[in-house]
C-alpha cells in the first residue's frame, strides 16, 4: 500500500506560517461574528469567505452591505482593495512552471498576503511547495475561524488589546528584514515604505500598496543593472 | 435582501479572482527575460514594506508616529530580532507581547 507523502517543502510552508495561524484564526472569528451581527446568515458568511477569501476586503464589504450599498459599489471597492494580488501573482507564478492549467486556476485563488510574505522570504525564486503549505495553513485557519465566529460570535472582543492586530505588520516586517542583503534592496524597501505612507494619508482603499509596490519595484528594475540578477540567483535561496 | 447578498458575494468573488488568476496563469508557463526576473525579485521588497509600514504608522488617515504609539516599538523589536536571525514565531510573539503590554500600560 502506498502512503501519501507530503513533500518537505509543503511541511516547511506550514511550519513557517505558524506564527500567523493564531491571528488569522482570531480575525476569522471576529469577521464571522461581525458579519452575523450585521445581518448576514452564517451560510452567506461561509460562502463569502470561501469564494472571495480576502479578509481585508470582506471586513470592508460587510458594513457596506448592511447599509444597503449598491452591488457595483461593493464589487468595485473589493477589486481596488485586492489589486495588490496582481503583484503577488506575478512574483509567485514562475515557480509553478510544471503545473497543469486547472491546478493553477485553483492555486491562484489561494493567493494571500501572509503566504506571499512567508514564501518569498524563504527563497528566491519562491518555492511552489512552501507556498502550497502556507496557503493551506492560512486559508484553513481563516475559514475555520469564520466558521467558529458565525456559530459562537467573535472569540476575542477586542483583538487589539492582546496586540493580535500587530501580528500582521510584524510578520511582513520581519520577512522584509531577512531579505535586505544589498544596498539596492534597502533603497527599494525604504522608498516603497515612504511612498506608501505618503499615499495612505491621502488615498482610501489599498491604492497605496499597489502604487508604492509598483513604483518602487519598477524603478528598481529599470535603474539597477539586470546583470545583478544572475549573481543573485546563485547566492540566494 | 438574500438575492442581493448572493449577487454581491459572487461579484466580489469574480472581482477578486480577476486580481489573482490572470498574472498567475500568464507568467507560469513561459521563460522570462532577466529584467523581468529582477523586477519580480524586487516586488516583495516593495510590497511588504508598503503593506507593513502604513499599518504601523497610519491610523484613520493620519500619521501616528509619536513615541507613545505602541506599534512603533513593536516594529523596532521585530525588525531587530528578525535581522539577527531570530525565528519568525519567536520574534513575532515578542513584538505582539510588547505591543499588548504597552497598550495595557498606556
Task: Walk me through the structure.
The complex is a heterodimer of chains A (237) and B (106). Chain A has 237 residues and is an all-alpha fold. Chain A folds into two domains: 8-179, no CATH class; 181-237, no CATH class. Helix content of chain A is 70%, strand content 0%. In chain A, α8 (113-122) packs parallel to α10 (167-177) and α11 runs antiparallel to α12. Chain A is globular, with a radius of gyration of 19 Å. In chain A, 52% of the residues are buried. Mean pLDDT of chain A is 89; it is low at 230-237. Chain B is mainly alpha-helical and 106 residues long. Chain B has a domain at 1-30. In chain B, α3 (70-83) packs antiparallel against α4. In chain B, 46% of the residues are buried. Chains A and B meet through α3, α4, α5, α6 and α7 of A and α1, α2, β2, α3 and α4 of B.
Could you say which structural class the secondary elements and strand pairing of chain A correspond to? mainly alpha
- Along the chain, the helix and strand elements of chain B come as HHEEHH
Compute the average pLDDT of chain B.
91
User: N-to-C SSE series of chain A?
Assistant: HHHHHHHHHHHHH
What is the tally of beta strands of chain B? 2
Helix content of chain B: over 70%
Distance between the termini of chain B: 44 Å
Oligomeric state of the chains present here: heterodimer
Strand elements of chain A, count = 0
Number of helices of chain B: 4
- Work out the strand percent of chain A: under 5%
Amino acid at each position: 500500500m502506498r502512503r501519501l507523502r507530503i513533500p518537505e517543502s509543503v511541511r516547511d510552508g506550514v511550519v513557517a506560517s505558524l506564527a500567523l495561524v493564531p491571528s488569522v484564526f482570531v480575525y476569522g472569528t471576529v469577521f464571522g461574528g461581525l458579519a452575523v451581527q450585521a445581518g448576514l446568515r452564517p451560510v452567506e458568511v461561509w460562502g463569502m469567505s470561501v469564494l472571495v477569501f480576502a479578509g481585508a476586503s470582506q471586513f470592508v464589504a460587510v458594513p457596506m452591505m448592511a447599509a444597503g450599498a449598491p452591488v457595483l459599489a461593493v464589487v468595485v471597492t473589493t477589486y481596488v482593495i485586492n489589486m495588490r494580488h496582481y503583484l503577488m501573482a506575478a512574483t509567485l507564478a514562475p515557480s509553478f512552471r510544471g503545473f497543469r492549467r486547472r491546478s493553477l486556476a485553483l492555486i491562484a485563488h489561494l493567493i494571500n498576503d501572509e503566504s506571499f510574505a512567508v514564501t518569498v522570504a524563504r527563497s528566491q525564486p519562491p518555492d511552489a511547495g512552501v507556498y502550497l503549505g502556507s496557503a493551506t495553513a492560512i486559508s484553513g485557519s481563516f475559514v475555520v475561524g469564520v466558521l467558529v465566529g458565525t456559530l459562537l460570535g467573535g472569540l476575542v472582543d477586542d483583538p487589539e488589546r492582546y496586540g493580535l492586530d500587530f501580528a500582521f505588520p510584524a510578520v511582513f516586517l520581519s520577512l522584509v528584514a531577512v531579505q535586505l542583503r544589498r544596498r539596492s534592496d534597502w533603497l527599494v524597501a525604504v522608498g516603497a515604505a515612504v511612498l506608501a505612507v505618503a499615499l495612505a494619508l491621502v488615498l482610501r482603499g489599498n491604492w497605496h500598496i499597489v502604487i508604492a509596490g509598483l513604483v518602487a519595484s519598477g524603478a528598481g528594475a529599470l535603474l539597477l543593472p539586470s546583470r545583478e540578477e544572475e549573481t543573485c540567483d546563485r547566492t540566494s535561496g | 435582501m438574500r438575492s442581493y447578498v448572493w449577487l454581491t458575494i459572487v461579484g466580489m468573488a469574480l472581482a477578486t479572482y480577476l486580481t489573482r488568476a490572470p498574472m498567475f496563469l500568464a507568467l507560469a508557463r513561459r521563460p522570462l527575460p532577466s529584467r523581468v526576473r529582477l523586477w519580480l525579485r524586487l516586488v516583495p521588497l516593495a510590497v511588504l514594506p508598503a503593506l507593513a509600514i502604513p499599518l504601523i504608522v497610519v491610523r484613520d488617515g493620519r500619521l501616528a508616529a509619536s513615541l507613545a504609539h505602541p506599534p512603533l516599538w513593536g516594529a523596532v523589536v521585530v525588525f531587530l530580532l528578525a535581522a539577527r536571525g531570530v525565528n519568525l514565531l519567536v520574534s513575532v510573539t515578542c513584538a505582539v507581547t510588547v505591543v499588548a503590554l504597552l497598550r495595557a500600560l498606556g
